[in-house]
Amino acid sequence: MLDMIIFRITGIMSESFTIQISSNLVKHLIDDGEKLEKKTKKSKPKTPKSPQRPRTVPSKQLSDDSETLQGAKWPLQPPLYLPIQPPQQNVELDTIRSVLKESEKVVERLQKQEENMLKEVTQRAKELHEKEFKLPNSRPMPCLDEKDACLKCYKENLDDPLKCASLVDGFADCARRVRQQLGAMNN
Question: Which of 171, 176, 127, 178 is nearest to 148 (CA)?
Answer without folding.
Answer: 171
